[in-house]
Structure formats: structure tokens, C-alpha cells
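Limitations

Structures in this collection are predictions, not experimental determinations, and the ligand pose is part of the prediction. Treat each record accordingly. The example that follows, with NDP as the small molecule, is included so readers can see exactly what is and is not provided: the inputs are given verbatim, and the output is the predicted complex.
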Amino acid sequence: MTIGKLIDGKAFAAGLREQVAEGVAAFAARTGRAPGLAVVLVGEDPASAVYVRNKGKMTVAAGMESFEFRRPASIGADELLELIEELNGDPRVDGILVQLPLPKHLDEQAVIAAIDPAKDVDGFHVINSGRLAVGLPALVPCTPLGCLMLLKDELGDLAGLEAVVVGRSNIVGKPMAQLLLAESCTVTIAHSRTKDLASVVHRADIVVAAVGRPEMIKGEWIKPGAVVIDVGINRVPDPEEEGKSKIVGDVATAEAISHVSAITPVPGGVGPMTIAVLLRNTLVAACARAGVEAPEGL
Ligand code: NDP
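Predicted complex:
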């Protein structure tokens, strides 16, 4: 039985962060200031608080300025929009990220729409998704861009390959499909209404799973030699330790490993890429705003 390779997203992300740090130093030498990332956290969700803390730490480690704004879950829409307006106008801020999800009384789309597209380092603004769709330079959502980087590192030229993206969210599935299309893949987007998902997945040279269902994609669905990117982060009970939980992806990796040529593990695959690409996007946004060229290869 042949065993596929595990793609080391942790190591790739560390390399990308190093590259960003070098670009940040060059930017600062040229412009006299460091790029700045503002993160807005509304409410007390513990998982979001951990993400925001990690983002802050890595931003500083890359040599950038980190601005953190914590607001209570009770904040009114007007007050939040006012904060975003302030950040839009603040010359020290190159990237604005509003941590999602927001409390139910706030309209996420309206909040995203208020962010200056030039500072939209999450790439969720319709201007950026539109630019991506028509093939113009855009700030692209971090997770799918990270997936693309891993795929290109593994496969080189992706042109002509059959790609199946399972999931059609605005955050992962749709931008992932756009990125693969831009690389000249033949792209299928599957979702909860797709008929016979197993045979759709079986066509693919590249499978990107972004569903949010633990180990839903089975090993035998995968075409021999395919490359699989598992975006899923699912917390499940740990069968080996009672009362404990563990994180698994959307792909049954233990089965899939003997079908694939390479697959991202969960954890340690796509996860670490997201923050590294956020830092990359912040540097790219800073360069565009300052009218200097972004470092090559980023
Ligand atoms: P969403 O819940 O927004 O989207 C899930 C998608 O999966 C939907 O398009 C849905 O279809 C589809 N789906 C659900 N059930 C099935 C099914 N049985 N068969 C086929 N398709 C199905 O999730 P996200 O895109 O935000 O995230 C997906 C996963 O990726 C989650 O586990 C999330 O935690 C993880 N994630 C990881 C990140 C990272 O940094 N590694 C970052 C972002 C997300 P439909 O549209 O028809 O409902």
C-alpha cells in the first residue's frame, strides 16, 4: 500500500511569515513606518478572543503594528460603524479585520461593506470579491489563498487539472473556486444539494473540503493520486481519552492517506496558513496604499 504525503502547513506558514517580516522591514525602511493591522473584536466569544490574541502576537512578531479594539456584545450598529470609519481614515492602519461571527443584532454584511476595500485584508468586501471574480488584483480571503499556496507548492502549474471544492461559503468555498479557475483548473463546486457527492469528488485531481462535517469525505471517494486540502475544523469527542475532545477535518484522513499523493493534516495543515496570509495581505495592502511595490513572490 502506498502512503500519501502529509503537507506541512505549519512549516510553510512559518516560511511565509518570515518572508512577510523581511518585506515589512523593507517597507519600514522605505516609508519610515511599519504596516498596521487593526482587529475589532465584539463580544466575549472565547474562541474569537484566542484567535484575536494570536493574530496580535503574530502581527507584532512580523514587525507590524497591531491595534486591538474590544467592544461589548451590546454595542450598537452605529457605534461599530463609527469605529470602522475612524479606522478607514487612520493613516497608521493598513488592514482592518472585524472578527466574525458578530452578535446577532449586528448586520455582518453592512459591517463588511463599511470597511475601506483597500484595507479589507479579509477580502470579504464585495469590491474585492468582484475584483477576484473578474480577474483584477484584489485582496483575497486568507484561508482559500493559503490553500492555493499549498497546492501550487505541491503541484506547480495547476492548469487543466480537475478541481472539486466541497462547500460554497463566501469565506472559503466560492473564493477558492475563483482562485482555482484563475489557475485554469476545471472547477466544480459541490454543496449540500449535490447529488452523488462521492462520484463528483472521485473525478478530482484536487479536492478542497470546506464543509464543517467531521470526516465526511471518505478515503474511497478520492481518486488515486489526488491532492487533498482539508479546510475543516471540527471538534469531536476523543475516543482515546474519555471526557476529552480533539480536532478533526472534513476528510477521513486515515483512510484517504492511502489514496492521495498528498493531503493536509488537521491540525497542522490549512489552519496555520490563515494568519500567515492575513499578515501577507496586510503587507500587500500597506504597499498598495503607500504606492510601493509589494515584495516579489508574496
Ligand atoms: P459554512 O458552514 O459557511 O459552509 C459549509 C458549506 O458546506 C456550505 O456550502 C454547505 O452547503 C456545505 N455542506 C454542508 N453539508 C454538506 C454535505 N453533507 N455535503 C456537501 N456539502 C455540504 O462553513 P465555512 O465555509 O465557513 O467553513 C467550512 C469549514 O472550514 C468549517 O469546518 C470551518 O471551521 C473551517 N474553516 C477553517 C478555517 C481555517 O483557518 N482552517 C477558516 C475558515 C473555515 P450549502 O451551501 O448547500 O448549505
